[in-house]
Amino acid sequence: MSDNRPGLNPHRLVSLMRQAIERCNLQLQNAVVFTEGATGAYAVTPVIAAMAGASHVFALTRSSRYGTVEQVRANIFELAKIAGVSKCIEFITEKKQIDIAQADIITNSGHVRPINVEMIDWMKPNSVIGLMYEEWEFRHEDVDLNACRQRGIQIAGVNERHPSVDVFSFLGIMAAKLLLDAGISVYTSNILLLCDNPFRDFIERGLIKAGATVDTVDNLATAPINKNYDAILVALQPQAEPVLSAKDAELIAKYWPGALVAQYWGDIDRPAVLSHNIPLCPEVEPKPGHMGILPSAVGPEPIIRLQTGGLKAAEVIWRKPGQSNDPEMKFVQLL
């Protein structure tokens, strides 16, 4: 099923894209971009690249539970037509050497992943991979880092906290959305936030502004055991092992019975949690290392900001390699 929320009106999306391109001063003239053509808010990526002046955009499009290839193409084409850039977007359905070899910027987007050894061997020596997230969030299954280093392919993470991108300010709203969908009002709720990464202040601030009382700790072992919580929000950086273990599930059942466990980020031992009859959300387990709620859940704005910022970070490295003193390098986090 496609995302038909009124807030994703194509004219509104094009307006938001223009604003984001202007804020980031995204300039992709003469660049060939290889990215995905996806659904919902993620339909914007190839259109942003085209609106920013890319000479050619390959949009890798696939069928999914949200729509057929034809439906996805139709949605993206509608956006591109409104923006006046439909002629420079080419829809493709598979990764081919002849296309990837032309690309100056390749985004680490869903359909494009994984970027493996074979794909990296097809790339131009001066091409840049845009992660479309911050470098400390890097997932090794996304991109073969060793192959990139061997070929000198640079990988650009985006500074999501840059004022012109400002995606992190949506993290609290996303946390509230995850809790609201699970039946936690947030307002007047007591929430235990487990967070050991830069998301911490943004999530905490957003929940407090929504009227919650929040206790924040790095791990469950340091949490207050003499307080009642409506929800335990897990936002821990993924590790090789679950960030919430079977032992943690025992502690929750013992000290905070009835508290909802909300998996915002970080893999958890779900069977152990459920074996103690601990309520858990989201219902569908996220892929390993992925978030339990996507930024798109709260609207297209964070996705448009993120995709534009990710393209900008890649553009800066592509155009200005090694110019560390350039002000635009503040968009970039090199891996």
Question: Top keywords for this entry?
Answer:
335 residues; 2 domains; 33% helix; alpha/beta; Rossmann fold; five-stranded parallel beta sheet; 16% strand
In short:
The chain is an alpha/beta fold. The protein has helices spanning 10-24, 44-51, 69-83, 97-100, 117-122, 145-151, 171-181, 200-209, 246-255, 270-275, 301-319; strands spanning 32-37, 56-61, 89-92, 105-107, 128-130, 154-158, 190-195, 213-217, 231-235, 260-265, 280-281, 332-334.
Walk me through the topology.
Blueprint: H1 10-24, E1 32-37, H2 44-51, E2 56-61, H3 69-83, E3 89-92, H4 97-100, E4 105-107, H5 117-122, E5 128-130, H6 145-151, E6 154-158, H7 171-181, E7 190-195, H8 200-209, E8 213-217, E9 231-235, H9 246-255, E10 260-265, H10 270-275, E11 280-281, H11 301-319, E12 332-334
Parallel strand pairs: 1-2, 1-4, 2-3, 4-5, 5-6, 7-8, 7-9, 9-10, 10-11
Antiparallel strand pairs: 6-12
Helix pairs in contact: 1-3, 1-11, 2-3, 2-11, 7-8
Report on this model:
By secondary structure, the chain is of the alpha/beta class. It has 2 domains: 6-165 and 299-334, NAD(P)-binding Rossmann-like Domain (Rossmann fold, 3-Layer(aba) Sandwich), CATH 3.40.50; 183-281, Rossmann fold, CATH 3.40.50.720. Helices cover 33% and strands 16% of the residues. The protein contains 11 helices and 12 strands. It has helices at 10-24, 44-51, 69-83, 97-100, 117-122, 145-151, 171-181, 200-209, 246-255, 270-275, 301-319, and strands at residues 32-37, 56-61, 89-92, 105-107, 128-130, 154-158, 190-195, 213-217, 231-235, 260-265, 280-281, 332-334. The strands form 2 sheets. A 7-stranded mixed sheet has the order 3-2-1-4-5-6-12. The protein has a 5-stranded parallel sheet with strand order 8-7-9-10-11. Helix 5 links the parallel strand 4 and strand 5. Helix 1 crosses helix 3 (69-83), helix 1 (10-24) runs parallel beside helix 11 (301-319) and helix 7 packs across helix 8. The longest helix has 19 residues, at 301-319. 48% of the residues are buried. The model has no long low-confidence stretch (mean pLDDT 95).
